[in-house]
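Hi R.,

As promised, here are both runs. First protein below:
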Amino acid sequence: MVDENTISRWAVAGALDAKDSATRKMFELGLRLRRESDAPVYDLSLGNPHLEPPSIWRDAIVTMLQTEPPGQHRYMPNAGFGYVRAFIAEREAARFGVPFIEADVIMTVGAAGAMAIALRSIVDPDEEILAPSPFFPDYEHYARAVGAKLVLAPTRADFSLDVPALERAIGDRTRVVVVNSPNNPTGAIYTDGELAELGRMLARVSAARARPLYVLEDSPYRDIVFDGSKPASILAHYDHVIHISSHSKDLGLAGERIGFAAISPRAPGRALLQRVLPFANRVLGFVSAPALMQRSLPLVLGKPGGRVDTGAYERNARAFYEPLAALGFAVTPARGGLFLFPQVPAPWVDAFGDAAGEALAQRLAERRTLVVPGGTFGSPHHIRIALCVPSTDVEGALAAFRDVAARPKGP
């Protein structure tokens, strides 16, 4: 039994929450099932890239270790190596048409580290963080960590932005709007038109406020897109923006934790943010992003072979569409990212109501196929399927889906 009086309210609300990281629980269940038996486990739970990093990255790491001058593993400025930040600034400026400079970029311990320092830098306790739903559940924990509250606004049926719904959800305490595109869990990519509408609304609302609304553009999947899609950015349509990304996915380096935050050059208070974000990096315990990972980025990004074959994720998505639809799932095709977010067949909703996604996930787990119930993401009639698995796992998982989907009741 845990004595909750020994830990913080944040820990009680987060780590001891019954729904805390259903994704991780499924992932750990998969590890246990593999230890207990040699039978296949089809783990579609965690967005854990199965593709190995590109050989150009491994070669760069080996070369750096063999040829590095003394001092390459010592402390650097909390914002990161200047030449790496300049490289990222130039790259993002070319991508988005926004004149980033070195000082705008802070290298971080993944996109999660960037979210943590950004929220700590601009949000006060008792303020609110607004996000479209379905949403990445860790946003709730990020909000609690700064004493804030997460508020959700629905998206449309196809998971596109519903800007009027977002506006209705804005209150006196709203401080931040999180924009996650390509989206986890839905695979939606917000269009330039949607983001332009959002930018106009936020500019109008902020003009009447003492403290403007900030946008945290959370884009760790921006280089994993399908059908030739090109993610738009709110940077083109609104001034108060911190752009956040990582290379966990496109380089297959989730365990190495390298990301960055980039402050919009048009953001009022830009100079102060350039000082405060690195300070937050230090005092939150990250100190700085890993030196070796920082140094590898200019040697890899944009080079031939400098990305994993993200087409594998699109092929897996396509492999699911027709079989799931034939089983009665409502499937909105993913346009990018690592996930598919189908709605479970109607008989499951009729039988289990808002526990439908959880019930289906449990039945699949009994057949060694792991997905995450959609309630974790604010949509209890859905499940989330990770696409970053070998194609053979897709085939095995579909066999389990066919076995259970038509029978919402009974063994």
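And here is the second one, sequence first, then its structure tokens:
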Amino acid sequence: MTTPANIRTLTLEELKNYLISINEKPFRAKQIMEWLWQKKARSFDEMSNLSKLLRQKLANDFTFPYLEISHRQISRDGTIKFGFQLFDGHHIEGVLIPTTDRITACVSSQVGCSLTCKFCATGYLPMKRNLFPFEIFDQVVIIGDEAEREYGQSLSNIVYMGMGEPLLNYKNVLDSIYIITSPEGLGMSPRRITVSTAGIAKMIKKLGDDNVKFEFALSLHAANDNKRNEIMPINESNSLEALAEALKYFYEKTGTRVTYEYIIFDGFNDTLEDAKELSAFARIVPSKINIIEYNPIAEADFVNVKEERLNAFIQYLESKHHIVNVRRSRGKDVDGACGQLALKVKKVQ
């Protein structure tokens, strides 16, 4: 067989075939898989129930790349932002977000991003490549280990809301979730994982076809095509009408309530008319609305909404019986809040 360079790209069957080819017992494949995904090994030497000879053969025949922490910053509120260096020298960022009721890992799915959303720092970086499943897995492991060390708690949630558009790295994202949720992996409930998209209609339908079990969020930020086109160029090819159709299809297939993420910008999408448009769109399928505080970036002129307007906006939505949560920013002082990832990365690449 042609042996892949990276051992974490092998399936169980491929690993069994490899072991047979070197006159080793195929049952060792399951032991190796346990070390890779369940016991979170970082070297062949850690695989203590394998013979020294087998460990040496594995080291000779495969590479075992994993993420390295390139920088780590702790916010005043306890949020920790990580810079990770990949095996090919690229950099990404991930965030540990501790709150009173949960410990969340925010992970990246791409190096850079191709969507160029005007309010997001990552959108001003060039798209380099998709992340592999093991690179997403490593973010979760490293951030989870840090949660245990720093706060004495395990991760309770994972959000695919870091750098990149998850649905443009569809297979690798779903493969990473399979590893994270599998009993042979980290065994986390899929309901504690949220995948967020800027809105790729055909891929939202594919999520429905694949009957995914994780939570799903749409970064909406405007329920008006003209306004959404202005801040999110992806809307020009994925209009609100197309998204509405895809969301209905997704809900019919999965029964999963959709979360709408809505950043309110001062003087742009903060009027009662905007709230009415959001209310109408949010009725398409069962949903909840997360109102997100804007985090300014150097590349854009948007500013956060005034408190008075924010309160009026929320009160209108609640008067129409929507479930509304307000997400206050965490980690702003280390550029670790929503929309701020990639500023440090840009400096080091």
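A quick note on the second one: The first strand starts at residue 68 and ends at 74. Let me know what you think.

Best,
J.
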